[in-house]
Structures are given as C-alpha cells and as structure tokens.
Specification:
three-stranded antiparallel β-sheet, mainly alpha, 6% strand
C-alpha cells in the first residue's frame, strides 16, 4: 500500500509539472517539502508527528534534502528508529520571532492594536525552508499563520490606514506586486506549498487603499501588475466552448458570458493539511484527485470550509467547489476590471478603457442573471453543471452590494434576509448552517462584517449597518477585556462560547480582526464610547 501511494504521488506530480502554466513554473528552485521529501514527508504527516499538520511544511531543513533523505533511507528500518527524533535532528522547527509583548491591561483595545502592529510585523528576507522571501516588511495574521496572506492583508491594511502607517501599506502592496511578477500571480500566501492556488483577489482594492493615502495617480505604477493578475484569473478563456465550458478558473455560461470559479492546479493532498486530506479522500468514496481539487479550490476561496461548497449542504465529502460560480469572486473581478478601466483612463488610453468597461458590465449582467433568485430575493452561488443556484444562503450575497452592482430593489431583498436570518447578538453569522465547519454558523468573521456593513451603507440601510457594527465591536471588545486577545473568528450567536470548527484551534493575533476593528471605530466614532464604557465597567 505504501509503494502504491508513493507511485500515485509521483504520478500526480508529473501531471502537475506537465500542466502548470509557464508563470507558475518560474520558481522551481524553491524548497517544496511535499515534493522533495517524498516518503519522509508522507510518513511524518500520516503518523501525525506534530499536532498541527502545518508544522512540518514550515520546518527548515538543516542540510540539503538529498543528504537528509540519504540518512532517512539508512536509518528508517532500524529497530530503534524514532521518526520524531530524526525530524528534530534534521529540521529547525518554525518559531515566532522573539518578542517581549504582553497585554497591557491599562490600555483599551484600540491602543492594544496599535502596539500589536510591531509584534505582527515581519522584515524582508526569510528564514529558509518553504517561506518565500519578500523584499519589503509586512504584517502576518498571527498564531500558526506565520506568513503573509492574500485577502487577509486587505483588511489588515484598513487598520494600518487608520494608524497612518502608509509606508507599511506601500510595502505590502509592493510585496504582492513582487509576487505577481515573480510567480505570475498572488498566491494564497508566501509559502511554496501555496503556489498552485491564490485567494480572493483583493489586489485592486489594496491599490485603492494606497491611492487614498498617496493620490489616485499612484495607480499608474501598478497597471502592468494588475493586468498580469487579471490574466492569471482569466487564463484559458480562449479555450472555452459549449462542449468545454470550464478551464482552470474560467467558466463559459449558457449564454456565452465568461465568469470565474475557484481552482487549484495541483490535485493532491495539501501539504499543510496532508493527513486530513488523505483521510477525507479515503472515507469519501470519491476519486482522490477530484476531492483534493475541490478541497484546494475551497482553500483558494478563503472559506475553508463551509457547507456553501457541499453538494448535500451538510458533509464535506460532497464538496463540489469547482462546479460552482461564486458570487464573491466574480464581484471582486468586476472591481478589478473597473480598476483596469480607471488605469487606462489615467493613461489616456480610451480604447482600452472602453474594453475593460465592457468586460465589467458583461460580468455584472451575467452575475445578476445566474446568481440572483427572484423567489428568495437573494444571491446564491451557481452550479454550472446542474444549471441551478445552490440555494444555500451565505454572506457572499453582500458582495454585489458592496461593489454597487445592483439596483435598490435587489439590495432591499438582500438587506431583508440579513435582518431576519443573519443578524445575531454579536453581529452577522456567516451561513445559516451549523455544521462544525468554521465558515458556518455560529461563527462570525471580521472581513465579512466589514463587507456586510459597507454593503448596507451603500444602499442607505444605515440603522441595520450601525447595529451590526456596534454588536461586532462590542463582542470584540468584551473578549479582549476577558482574555487580553483579539481572535481570528467569534461565536456571534452565543456570546458566552468561543468560536469553533475548522482544522485547527481558534487563533489569536489577529491581523484582519485588528484592521476591521480599527476601521469601524474610525468610521463610527460613537463606537469608541462603547469601548470606553466597557473598559470603565471592567475597572
């Protein structure tokens, strides 16, 4: 069985190398633990040498991998061989940078965040291993997330903007620009095992944050990078037809319009969740490559995991991410097209500006056509295999409102369901399903709160937006006062319980929570009073 599995892994690697686009093969010199360590990697992960599957991929080899593998082959069959001891001898474990940071209980939560920026900041360069070196400083989320992340970083920047850390925003934008020009796109994060997938494409929104700080003309500096990022998402459009409606991240809709889906170029277990993926494939009864692809595509969505992606709405074994046209992804690409239009206008290239305007309008029309439910007056993801919407309500429905893609009648329908079904004591719940997955009820997440609040404000639902904002800020602050921490996610239904679900424990830090909280307090000055009142009660 061991050799069969190893052959299967090598077979998948061969397929990957033959099918990856040229841009994704530019960084082959990087250390890739899942590929270079072979059986050693498999055994460390399958035997769960470390409680967190992400630990070993983040380890740094202390000598060339060829030498490590030779030592492994010589020792592995000895009666006294200890795999964990071997790993500790030949690899450096990942560790957070040395810090003397501790929560100062005399400071309120916004002051705490201002101090945290330094703790979460990383300098240029790298510590070896799977981490891809970046040329500029950046902010990491915190906890087990020791690297930069794509969509996390936009929401972190919102807080950096409030903190007047313009040069740090510039550095993070330039890091993503570097990645686009180096590996052909913005990967999930700056780890080699993330290169085959991306995350929700917020790069164009980051550019607008930078433009707010430095002036609109700065957009012209990033035209080539944004075009390259857009081309990554649209790769293969020319290959689509009625009989071949999908290729990588592009999907041809029944009326000929082009929309997008989440994808991953590598149909194998994720190195950072290797055992979890192998076990899932084993018990699912499905073709392994198929379920690995859908798992990885869900990881690209950032919603890993949610019943949003499950065919039966309940079990992860039915995950079908690659069959779905997601609302949020296409709204983000609509914004990217509008930004490319704006860049062309700045350059005086009106022909190109018209081209991107038409692309954006076509995308908007197709998204509204295929994802809007007249019956429920709500947006759902669209299954292009069954030609139906999934009818699973999620907060992804707020994205068309956030980008002002809809008229007031549709906005009213979304706002109504948010009011009746999603609003909870601590803010808004991500979906209406309690499944044990972290992107489902009862959890709430900072990025989706920001998108929801701004979406409602765009259409005049200020009281509803104010209520969600105050409940979310109140919950964040209460947890901070009780624990001294800001968390990755929160239980918005039962404020006495922690958020749960997922493949790892709830993390603290936390980049996007910090960013959204600061931005909300700056947007709603009255929320600062809530913080001060709670602080006084605590005293």
């Amino acid at each position: 069985m061991k050799y069969t599995f190893r052959f299967f892994s090598y077979y998948l690697l061969l397929i990957l190398l033959l099918t990856l686009p040229q841009a994704a093969t530019q960084a082959q010199h990087y250390y890739r633990p899942g590929q270079q360590l072979g059986e050693l990697f498999e055994q460390v992960q399958l035997q769960r040498i470390f409680p967190d599957s992400k630990t070993f991929p983040d380890c740094v080899p202390l000598s060339p991998t060829e030498r490590i593998l030779k030592a492994y082959e010589q020792q592995k069959n000895k009666p006294d061989f200890d795999l964990k001891e071997f790993v500790l001898e030949h690899f450096k474990l990942p560790s957070a940078p040395a810090t003397t940071f501790s929560t100062d209980t005399s400071q309120n939560v916004t002051q705490h965040i201002e101090r945290l920026w330094t703790t979460l900041q990383r300098q240029p360069g790298d510590n070896g291993g799977s981490l891809i070196a970046l040329p500029h400083q950046y902010i990491v989320p915190g906890g087990r997330f020791r690297e930069i992340y794509y969509w996390d970083s936009y929401f972190t920047m919102l807080g950096l903007q409030v903190s007047n850390k313009t040069e740090l925003i510039q550095s993070m934008v330039d890091n993503f620009t570097y990645l686009i020009h180096t590996v052909g796109h913005v990967p999930n994060g700056n780890r080699t095992y993330y290169l085959s997938r991306s995350q929700p494409p917020f790069y164009s929104l980051m550019l607008h944050v930078l433009a707010q700080q430095k002036g609109r003309a700065v957009l012209a500096n990033y035209t080539d990078a944004l075009k390259k990022e857009y081309d990554f998402w649209m790769d293969g459009t020319e290959n689509l037809s009625e009989t071949n409606p999908a290729y990588r991240r592009v999907v041809r809709m029944p009326n000929g319009a082009i929309l997008n889906r989440y994808w991953d170029d590598n149909p194998s277990p994720r190195p950072e969740s290797y055992l979890e993926d192998v076990e899932l494939a084993k018990h699912s009864g499905r073709i392994p490559e198929e379920i690995y692809r859908d798992i990885r595509a869900a990881a690209e969505s950032g919603w890993d995991f949610s019943t949003r992606w499950f065919a039966d709405g309940q079990n992860i074994s039915t995950i079908q991410t690659t069959k779905l046209v997601p609302i949020d992804l296409n709204a983000l690409l609509y914004h990217m097209e509008l930004t490319l239009q704006e860049m062309a206008i700045l350059a005086g290239d009106h022909k190109t500006a018209k081209h991107y305007k038409e692309l954006a309008e076509n995308r908007r029309d197709a998204l509204l056509k295929y994802t809007w439910s007249k019956k429920d007056k709500f947006f759902y993801d669209y299954n292009f295999h069954t030609h139906t919407t999934t009818n699973i309500p999620t907060l992804a429905a707020v994205y068309p409102l956030y980008f002002r893609m809809v008229k007031r009648k549709k906005a009213a329908g979304v706002a109504a369901m948010l009011e009746t079904d999603f609003m909870q004591a601590g803010g808004v719940v991500t979906t209406l399903n309690e499944s044990g997955q972290q992107w489902d009820a009862p959890n709430g997440w900072a990025p989706l709160h920001w998108m929801t609040i701004e979406a409602l404000r765009n259409y005049g639902y200020t009281q509803q937006a104010d209520t969600i904002a105050s409940r979310w800020v109140n919950l964040n602050n209460e947890v901070y006062l009780a624990t001294g921490k800001l968390m990755e996610k929160y239980n918005v239904q039962n404020l006495e319980l922690e958020a749960g679900g997922g493949e790892y424990p709830n993390q603290d830090g936390f980049g996007w929570t910090n960013g959204v909280l600061l931005k909300l307090v700056a947007t709603y000055p009255e929320l600062q009073k809530i913080i001060l009142q709670q602080e006084a009660l605590q005293d």
